[in-house]
Write a structure and sequence with these properties.
Blueprint lengths: L13 E2 L19 E2 L2 H8 L13 H5 L4 E11 L2 E5 L2 H4 L4 H8 L10 E6 L10 H9 L3 E6 L7 E6 L2 E7 L4 H17 L6 E3 L11 E2 L2 H10 L7 E7 L4 H8 L2 H5 L3 E5 L11 H6 L4 E6 L16 H12 L5 E6 L15 H10 L7 E4 L8 E8 L2 E8 L5 E7 L4 E9 L6 E3 L3 E3 L2 E6 L3 E9 L17 E3 L6 E4 L9 E10 L2 E8 L3 E4 L7 E10 L11 E4 L10 E11 L2 E10 L5 E2 L3 E4 L5 E6 L1 E6 L2 E6 L5 E2 L4 E9 L10 E3 L2 E2 L1 E2 L2
Parallel strand pairs: 3-18, 4-5, 4-14, 5-6, 6-9, 8-10, 9-11, 11-12, 12-13, 13-14, 31-42
Antiparallel strand pairs: 1-2, 3-15, 7-8, 15-16, 16-17, 17-23, 18-22, 19-20, 19-23, 21-22, 24-25, 25-28, 26-27, 26-29, 29-30, 31-32, 32-39, 33-38, 34-37, 34-40, 35-39, 36-37, 40-41
Helix pairs in contact: 7-8, 11-12
């Protein structure tokens, strides 16, 4: 419904103001003004406003001389969780039934969103407003996560923050109660058929003049002491401008980091140069990196303004390639400046987002490709099963020629789609395909998506192998680890396996093998490494990834020595329990660095852990140490606590291995 909006212009600040606007003339619920009214002035003062560059035309000769973009599906980077946006019924009105399908459906004229962000209201009486759209998103296969702006009023206190004398913060004695508040919201949504993928601790804790402030130290304290009790994945810190000083302390605190699942960030006014995050790549192994809120380039222009909307494509490109985010989430889904207009139709900005969202699906992996092959052209590539997706942004005012060469695989067919001044995600003919090279023309000021089918040159085998079984680590030394795994199967036969090492959100090939086993060498002593495996067939089809295993190299060069395990259930309730594992070093020398492995036998699933970092694939659990449990002196021990879900029975594991060596139990 396209009705007059009673709110002030939505600049880059105060998109969530506390005052209720006057009731619109048509029967739409009153909406709170968006909280970006002052943000534009703030960012302007900081010199951080995003600016749309003017694309200069290229001559045909220069375009023809551009080097081919080499796309290598075997050189894998981050796994993509999806693209999406925010629904906030209290502030923007709920999406209608038709608009939900437009947002989360993946057909012609739909956005293809696979992530929905919702609001955790401080008043549980308002929680029901989030249900209908979340249920429909889940029905379309989307994941749902939630962010709070404020705790319940009974949990907060006022303090002076700079010139703000009525600033609000969570009382330090209420951290446990607040964790329970987040758990209660999670349970409420689950009871309504929406299993939250994750929940945030706080929306924009560093930009909170009208909601709740948190310092970086307070976030670390909460993560250390309270986040372990939260029953779903935990997101933090959701800084409004990807301020690294808000997230560095988390990455530098092993206990806090162990209780974090997703490092979330907002990108308001963040320059592209600040998108990379080397510290996360260094220390964020096993964690996700998400961009959880933005609009770009502003909230004052119509989302259909062209070519301004093309800037969204460049912004998404840098978010995927430079920042290596795994999720890209817009602010309001339906808005004059959003992916869907107030009349429920997809805007130009939305069509640009759909060029990514409809074709780069959850579970796809970004792969290496030249990022900026010629002036004003930006390319990124992704793979999933027997499909390679290439997204090309051309900001130039004239069409350009660009070749794409696929390495280590054979393209057998290609479809292409374009959004430009006159078309929205429109099907194109071509490009021409010769051998392993696509020769394409990128229309002026456009985003073009190429969906490439890969397989044999005759196209007779496009079925990938099944995923290999979860690998097991044995023979762990100071510099190597031997992995073995249940073999993959294929309709024509598996020809090889690729072992990858996971670091942050990226994958690096660590070894290849023609059998279901490999030894990875060249590792550093006393370091935890996480590995997974892919299978390949003769046609070049690649399987989905196996489960992961984490192994910690030793520091002594010898075997594990003696070890004993104490395992006990310390508390239980309907559907869940709390447990403790004690690792005893019964050897004669200190143990620095370890990997514990065991298998549940009744479907138990670990949901949180402290003292260790778990990885679970099916019933197999692998635990790596955190810093304060990494060293176990001779005759000493360390304790690990955890929460887990259970079914009707809860038998204890019967066997444990430490660095691949069997341990005695019940010591």
């Amino acid at each position: 419904m396209n009705t007059p909006d009673p709110r002030p212009p939505e600049g880059l600040t105060a998109r969530y103001g506390p005052q209720r606007a006057s009731t619109p003339p048509s029967p739409v619920p009153p909406r709170e003004p968006d909280p970006h009214v002052r943000r534009r002035a703030v960012l302007k003062a900081m010199g951080a406003l995003p600016i749309l560059s003017v694309a200069l035309p290229r001559s045909p000769a220069a375009a023809a001389a551009a080097a081919p973009v080499v796309v290598d599906p075997s050189a894998r980077r981050q796994t993509i969780r999806g693209f999406g946006g925010m629904n906030h019924p209290a502030w923007a009105g709920d999406l209608t039934a038709a608009q939900r399908d437009t947002a989360f459906g993946n057909g012609t004229g739909q956005l293809g969103f696979s992530i929905l962000r919702i609001h955790v209201d401080e008043d549980r009486a308002n929680w029901g407003a989030e249900v209908a759209t979340a249920q429909r998103a889940v029905a379309h296969g989307a994941i749902v996560f939630a962010s709070p702006w404020n705790p319940p009023a009974s949990m907060t206190e006022t303090f002076t923050h700079g010139s703000q004398t009525n600033a609000k913060r969570l009382r330090h004695d209420m951290y446990g109660a607040y964790a329970q508040h987040l758990n209660d919201f999670t349970a409420f949504m689950k009871s309504n058929g929406v299993d939250l993928y994750a929940i945030s601790i706080q929306n924009e804790p560093d930009y909170a003049s009208t909601w709740t402030w948190w310092t970086a130290d307070e976030i670390v304290t909460f993560l250390r002491n309270n986040a372990g009790s939260i029953s779903t994945r935990v997101i933090a810190p959701e800084s409004f401008q990807y301020v690294k000083s808000m997230s560095d302390p988390i990455l530098n605190d092993p206990t806090a980091l162990a209780n974090l699942d997703i490092l979330g960030a907002h990108l308001y006014g963040t320059p592209f140069a600040n998108f990379p995050y080397p510290l996360f790549q260094q220390k964020g192994q096993g964690k996700d990196l998400w961009m959880t809120e933005v609009y770009y380039p502003n909230s004052t222009d119509s989302a259909d303004l062209w070519p301004a909307a093309l800037g969204v494509g460049e912004h998404m490109h840098h978010a995927m390639v430079d920042a290596e985010f795994q999720a890209y989430v817009w602010w309001y889904i339906r808005r004059s400046y959003g992916p869907m207009r107030e009349d429920g139709q997809i805007s130009k900005r939305g069509a640009i987002m759909a060029q990514f969202a409809r074709f780069v699906r959850p579970g796809y992996v970004r792969v290496n490709a030249a990022s900026n092959p010629q002036t004003n052209v930006y390319t990124s590539a992704y793979t999933g099963g027997s499909t390679v997706v290439i997204v090309a942004v051309n900001k130039a005012t004239s069409a350009v020629s660009q070749q794409f060469t696929l390495a280590n695989t054979t393209p057998t067919g290609v479809a292409s789609y374009v959004t430009d001044a006159s078309r929205n995600v429109a099907s194109l003919s071509g490009p021409s395909l010769a051998g392993g090279t696509l020769s394409a023309t990128l229309p002026a000021q456009s985003v073009t998506t190429f969906v490439v089918t890969v397989g044999t040159s005759g196209g007779t085998d496009t079925t990938p192998p099944t995923a290999p079984g979860t690998p097991t680590a044995t023979a762990v030394t100071t510099s190597s680890v031997t992995l073995s795994w249940p073999a993959s199967t294929d309709n024509t036969g598996v020809t090889g396996y690729d072992v990858v090492q996971l670091g942050g959100s990226t994958e690096t090939t660590a070894a290849t093998s023609t059998t279901a086993g490999a030894t990875v060498t060249g590792l550093s002593a006393g370091t935890a490494y996480t590995f997974a495996v892919y299978a390949r067939d003769a046609a070049g089809n690649r399987s989905t990834r196996s489960g992961t295993v984490t192994a910690t190299t030793s520091t002594t060069g010898g075997s594990t020595g003696g070890c004993g395990i104490g395992y006990q259930v310390t508390g239980s309730w309907s559907g869940g329990f709390q447990g403790e594992i004690v690792i005893h070093n019964t050897g004669a020398t200190a143990l620095t660095g370890w990997t514990l492995a065991f298998t549940f036998t009744a479907g138990q699933t670990i949901t949180q852990m402290w003292g260790g970092t778990p990885t679970q694939s099916g019933s197999t659990v692998t635990v790596a140490p955190v810093d304060y449990t990494r060293a176990i002196p001779a005759g000493g021990s360390v304790s690990i606590g955890f929460l887990a879900d259970q079914g009707g029975t809860n038998p204890a594991p019967t066997a444990f291995t430490l660095n691949g060596g069997a341990c005695t139990t019940a010591v």
